[in-house]
Amino acid sequence: MKSHYMKKHLYFSLFFIPFILNISRCKKDAPIQGNLNLKIIETGSQGVKNAMVRLTPVDQTGFSDNLGNVLFQSLDISQLYTAEVSKEGYDSYTQTGIQLKADQTLNITVNLSANPSLNLSDTIFDFDSSKVQIPLFISNKGQGILNWQISVGSLLWISAIPNMGATTAGPDLVYINIDRTNLSQGVHNEHVFITSNGGLKSLEIKVTVSGSVPPQSTVTDIDGNIYSTILIDNRWWMNENLRVTHSPSGNDIQSYYYNNSSEYLTIYGRLYTWEVAMNYASQEKVQGICPNGWHIPSRNEWDSMILYLGGHNEAGGKLKATGTLYWLPPNEGATNRSGFTALPGGDRWYDGTYHYKGERAFFWTSTEYDNSQAFLSYLHNATSETVVQEVLKVNGMSVRCIKNQ
């Protein structure tokens, strides 16, 4: 009886030994896991959103959330990990030798240093014909404060106003000016440099001297705003949008700026209804809200300039600022050869909504179409054309003034 029992017990044990050994082997082979959470912050403990973290050797990638956190889960604790953190506008950061603990979350705080990045609206400036001034927009594509300075060296005939500044985002508006007075006839090519804590860039300056050139001009409105001007077909035009807030007699006037954003006011100026722009007059070439000695250009004056610049099909390209910093791509045909530097400030409809920033530039004329509409001239990002058409007077548009003859 005992022998029979021992045989049965031995058979049972031999049957289950492989199974037990297999379970033991599975437990031994399964990795023991832990978690890793990185909190990515900048100065002041503010979380950095959308920072990219690459974790090796597992080759996983994650992006930080609104609070700066990125979590990696179920990691083998037998490994040593390396976390590489990067985001445009910040210095990169790498931490090696990260050791995790079983069934725990290791929290690591990463401090990213802000890194300014110098960005320019253009780097080539062609002063052909009579052009004496071209605008340059300097902006910061990184983080922190960008401190910049323009150096022209011994080139006394080139100046930048202002020649230094600081911006957290921008843009800063700079005018590159040239003085042909002591230059010989021909083409002059030079470079000036912009130094900053966000990089170094050079500006290529090309100046054509073919004869006598009229002096550079500016005009000041009743608020004290100073506007640069440009000579086109022997007529002086503002090459900035009007931003005055008082009529020539000193009365307050109603004006708007895109989405009520002061940033857009700095770049695109103010938007006015036709009646406000005209200071409630109706005759062509009236002063309106322009500075003394200047007026709202008529449709014929716009057409004359357009014809001088090659006609409606190509004049728009010669009037538009170059690049896609402010104009949406493709900014078709933009050369700004006229120096007019049209920017796409959009418009304001009578219902209080704003439209077309980056896509279109609208400018009132002083010519009526009927009691409710007046003519304007507009430019588009997708074409080099200039269009003159009628629109409702109650909509808000930009204004460029022309000097009286």
Structure notes:
The structure is a single chain. This protein is mainly beta and 405 residues long. The protein folds into three domains: 33-111, Immunoglobulin-like; 116-216, Immunoglobulin-like (Sandwich); 217-405, no CATH class. It has helices at 2-29, 262-268, 274-277, 299-308, 315-319; strands at 33-42, 46-47, 52-56, 60-63, 69-76, 80-86, 93-99, 105-111, 118-120, 124-127, 133-140, 146-151, 158-161, 164-167, 172-178, 186-196, 199-209, 218-220, 226-232, 235-238, 294-295, 347-348, 354-355, 360-368, 373-380, 386-392, 402-403. The strands form eight sheets. It has a five-stranded mixed beta sheet, with no helix packed on it. A hairpin with a 3-residue loop joins β3 and β4. The chain is elongated and about 85 Å long. The model is unreliable at 5-28 (pLDDT under 50).
**Would you count the extended β strands for me?**
27
Compute the number of structural domains: 3
Work out the helix count: 5
Query: Which percent range describes the beta-strand content?
Result: 35-45%
Average predicted local confidence, pLDDT: 88
The computed structural class is mainly beta
The largest sheet has its strands arranged as 10-17-16-12-14
Termini, distance in Å?
A: 132 Å
Instruction: Estimate percent helicity.
Output: 10-25%
Low-confidence stretches: 5-28
Q: Give the overall shape, derived from the CA principal axes.
A: elongated
